[in-house]
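re: ur question from earlier - yeah i can do the single chain one, its not a big deal. heres the input i used so u can compare w yours
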Amino acid sequence: MDINLKGKRALITGASSGLGEVIAKEFAACGAKIGLNYHSHQDAAEKIASDIRNNGSEVIILQSDVSDGKSVEVMVNDFVKKWGGIDILVNNAGIDGTRALVWESDISEWERVVKINLFGPFYCAREVLKHMVNQKSGVILNVTSVHENIPWAGYSSYTVAKAGLSMLTKTMAQEVGSLGIRIISLAPGAIKTPINKNVWENPETFADLIEKIPLGRLGEREEVAKTATFLVSDSASYITGSTLFVDGAMIDYSNFTHGG
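and the output i got, formated as tokens:
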């Protein structure tokens, strides 16, 4: 299938590394104009933007803290001022936070994870939808996680935020479906990225992780990026209000592979 995003204007948050980087490059390769958001790592963002330009695509760099509504408003306005509108938003920015059981949790850290992972996508969607509603077109792709369904002891703020983002996806899809706007969630499982390098480089933790994946391997960033590209394209024009899991069947209760 030849995915064509030619002329589409796409804003990707958290695009200076990990999944966001590869999604931005994949969209650009399919013809999209890219707004590459970063929070702290300007040098990395500039390197990625340079790679995209060198491959013949257009890109702008946008610094913003997605957990700050005013900062998001400025970012979206700058994007729209540059490109004249917006067709695609990928809410990718997120963190898993520091592991802590609920009664041991630091409140400010718990709130920080929820602000970035749930309030951030809400702030971004809120600002972007102001333009998409007027256009009567657009796609918002929220990057959630298998942990929108699977509990994860020690990471209650992360699982709560991702579950909330899944419901936000469904609710927004109801609100804007009649306006020609699609809202989708993409839920990665265990993907080989720099952020979890300490897990897949350690033989013991790697073996434990692989046992949780029926497909028997980690996913690659490119596999997520290609799925994201399909979902925001016209090839997925009848998909909205739902989550697509890219997880090697991790969500499929792998402990039951050999019977109950």
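The beta strands are 9-12, 33-38, 59-63, 88-91, 138-143, 181-188, 191-192, 219-220, 243-246. not sure if urs matches, ping me
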